[in-house]
Amino acid sequence: MARGFLAQTITVVSLSVTLSVVTKTSCYNLSPVFQKTRNLACSPSSHHWFHRGTTTMSDCKGPKENLHRKARASPYPGSKVERAQVPDDKVNWMINWKDYSPVDYTAPSVLSGPKWADPEIGANNFSPKFNEKDGQVERSSHSGLYNVENGRPRNPVGRTGLVGRGLLGRWGPNHAADPLITRWKRDGSGNKTAHPVSGENILQFIAIKRKDCGEWAIPGGMVDPGEKLSAALKREFSEEALNSLQKTKAEKEEMEK
């Protein structure tokens, strides 16, 4: 699971949607969803992209509505640290901003040196290889190459008003896998249920309520070094949606049947 983010509640959320093509062999569908907001959660020298709930865009020249927003919200999650304010028209790195002065912050839980976190840049025997696989740690991004300045990776989306890793462990991308499990809402006869207003079929998905902030989210979290995506998806869903960490060995075996 994402470090320190535990599910407090699990629920099934219903949406009224329009899908052009839907192919299913059953009413349940498990599909891996890469949260690019976390895959690209670079811990940069001049900003930090928090990995939960941000919005991605392919490049900094994209439309205004695609600018990351939660990545600029203050205070930083789990702290009282206020980011430097970054207006929409200054997010783009192509815009010159000589007075930009981001706040430097890395959470104490990261600086304490847990096994899932990198040392600080400049630490002895730590020379990360960016934009490629670095031993068991994947530092390449699913959205292409990112810039490295003064030994630190730069957020490819733009300024966020923060320096350092925040709650993220890795310098560069912090890869995550979120299993998105959906089904069509059906009546007692097995027929799809339509929304009373829109008339569209209702698609349901599993969501969890996070303990740290009370927000609803898709269950999921960080992919461990060397871990296969399929294994991470299964582990994260079991931990966050099925409470596997609190189950006995016998209960886990029964759950996996």
TrEMBL record:
Keywords: Signal. It comes from the Eukaryota. PROSITE patterns: NUDIX (PS51462). GO terms for cellular component: mitochondrion. Residues 184-257 form the Nudix hydrolase domain. InterPro entries: NUDIX_hydrolase-like_dom_sf (IPR015797), NUDIX_hydrolase_dom (IPR000086), NUDT9 (IPR039989). CDD domains: NUDIX_ADPRase_Nudt9. It holds the Pfam family NUDIX. GO terms for molecular function: ADP-ribose diphosphatase activity. Residues 1-27 form the signal peptide. Transmembrane segments: none annotated. SUPFAM superfamilies: Nudix. This is Nudix hydrolase domain-containing protein. It comes from Micrurus paraensis.
